[in-house]
Amino acid sequence: PADSPDAAQAGARSAPAPVTDVAKLCVCDLLVAQCDVNCCCDPDCSAEDFSLFTTCSVPVVTGDSQLCSQKAAVYSLDVEANPPERIFKLIDQVNPSIFCIHATNYKQAMYLKSPEIPTPENFDRLLDKFGGATFSAEPDSWNLDTDAQNPPDANETYRYEYGVPVQTEDAFLRLPSPVVSSWCSDANPAGFLVNQATKCIRSVSVEKCDSIQALSMLFYINSSILAVPKSSQMVNITVQSIVVQSLNGMRTLLNSSDVLRLPMVLDGLCINAVLGVNYHITHTDTGEIIEAAAAFVLGAISKEALSIEQSFEISFTQENTQPVLLSGNPGYVVGLPVRAGFRPQGYPFPAGFLSNKHGQLTILQSTATQDCLAAQGARAPVLFGYNMISGCKLRITAAMKCQPLAQTLLDVLKGQSFPEYVASFGNSQAQDVLDWVPITQLHISEQMISNTLQSSCQIPVSLGIEVKWTKYGSLVNPQARIVNVTATITTTTLKQLPSGRERIIPITSSVVFTDISSPAEPGYKAWPTINIKLPFDFFYPFV
C-alpha cells in the first residue's frame, strides 16, 4: 500500500558498486607478461622487481574523475626496508569539485543519446511531457526500491546524516522550490542539517482555492516525520505559530495556534491561504529527530490574482544548544559579527566549537577601570565593516614574573581560545570547507630602551587584525566576501625594574577592514563571468 512505512523508502537511492576495480587497473602496464620498470601496479612484477624500482611512475590510480566519491589505489616504495618493497593502499577519494556525479546508476547516461526531434506525429506527446513548468527525467526502468538489493541488517542502527532527505511516513518532508522556472515544485526534499530558504510562484484560482492542497496547512503538517530512517518511531509536526496577512501586507500574530485554519472562499476572497511556512527541526547529536514545528503565514487572495508567491524555510537546531546566528545571506552585512571558528583534531571541517558561544571573532573590550588584569575575559565582537580599537593599561612592578605576565597578556589580547578560521560569507556552513579562510598569525618584536639592566623578557603589547574583503558576484547586487585575515601580535622587550619602581604600559587591540575589490572599468556594462568549465551535456536536454 502507498501509505505503508516501506513506501517511505521508495525515494532513497544507494550508490551502486563501482564499475571499475581500481586495484586491478594499471595504466602503465604496457608489456605483455613482462614487468614494466617503475610500474608499481604491474601484476607481472615480483617482489624482487619492486626492490629495484627507484619510484612509482603512476602513484595513484583512480576510475572516473567526475565521481564525487570513489576508491583510489595508492602505490609507493618503502626505501628504508631491506630490500625496498612496494606499499599498496586502497583509500576513499573525495572530489572537491562542485560539479560531480554522485552515482552512475543511470544506464542511458553511459552513452550520448540524440534528443527526439519533434514531428507532426510526436509533437503532442512531447508537449505533454516537456511542456509543463516541471517534468521528470527519470525513466520507468529505475529501480527505486533498494531493499531487495541491500537487505537491512537487523542489528544496524540508523541515523540521519548531513544532506539525507528527511523521511516521513509516506515519502519525505517537502520544501517547495523553483526548479526549471519560478513555479513551485513540491518534489524538493528537505535535507537533514541543510538550512534552506526558497521562494516560488504558485498558480491559484480563487473559486477552487479550498481544493488546492498547496494552499492548505494540512498539506505541510499531515505527514509525521520518521525519527530516524527506516524506523517506526514518528514525530508529529506541531503548529508553532500562525500569522495572518491582510491584502495590504499588514501582519497579525494570532494568540492561539491550536485551531487549524483551512482555505475557504468568502466574499470573493480566498482566505487562510498558505503564503509561507517555516519549519524548525530539533535533533540529537546522534542524528535523531525529536521535535518538529511549523510556523505559518496565512493570507487572503483576491479574485483578480492568477498566482501568488510562497516562501518556505527550514532550520535545524541540536537539542540543548543555541542556534548560530548568520551574518548575511550570502555576503556579510555591515554591522553584523564576523563569524569564526577552529578545526578540532580529527575533524574534516571547521566545527561548531568556536571562539565563544556565538561563534564570533572577538577583541579585547575596554572597561571603565582600564585595568588589563581585571579586563581578562571581557570580549567584544568584531563587526563587519567597522574599524575598531580598544585597550587597557598594565601596571608593572618589580615583583611580577616575566613568563606568567606574558601569558596573561596574550590571553587578554587573544582570548582563551583564539579562532583559526573566519567564515568567508555570512552564511557559511561548517561543512563547507572552502568557505572558511585561515587566519594568518604574525609576530613583530619591538625594542624598549632602558638604562636599567638586570634581565629582560618579551611581552605582547598589541594585537592588530586586518580583514581584507572584496565584492563578490553580480555587479548589480555585489556580496561582501572575506578573502584574507591577518592577526599581528607585537611584542616588546621589558627590562626588569628595580625594587619599589612601577611602570604603566598601554595594551591595545585593533581591527581594520580593507576593501580590495578591483574597480569596475569605465563604461563596462557586460555581465560578469564565472570561470567554470561545465560538462558538455550539463544542460541536456536543453540547448
Report strand %: 25-35%
- Structurally, the number of domains stands at 3
Number of strands: 23
Which spans have pLDDT < 50 for at least 5 consecutive residues?
1-15, 139-156, 349-357, 449-454
Over the alpha carbons, how many angstroms does the gyration radius reach? 31 Å
Order of helices and strands: HEEEHEEEHEEEEEEEEEEEEHEEEEE
- Helical content (DSSP H or I, runs of 4+): under 10%
Number of helices: 4
What's the arrangement of secondary structure elements?
Layout (H helix, E strand, L loop, with lengths): L46 H5 L8 E3 L6 E10 L6 E10 L28 H8 L46 E2 L5 E2 L10 E8 L14 H4 L3 E2 L7 E2 L1 E9 L5 E3 L10 E3 L2 E15 L5 E13 L5 E12 L21 E2 L20 E3 L14 E3 L6 E10 L4 H13 L6 E3 L12 E11 L9 E17 L6 E17 L6 E14 L28
Parallel strand pairs: 9-13, 12-14, 20-22, 21-23
Antiparallel strand pairs: 1-2, 2-3, 4-5, 6-14, 7-8, 9-10, 11-12, 12-13, 15-19, 16-17, 18-23, 19-20, 21-22
Pfam families: DUF1619_N (PF25752), TCTN_DUF1619 (PF07773)
Protein name: TECT1 protein
Keywords: Cilium biogenesis/degradation, Glycoprotein, Signal
Main features:
glycoprotein; disordered N terminus; 7-stranded mixed β-sheet; mainly beta; single chain; 543 residues; 3 domains; TECT1 protein; 32% strand
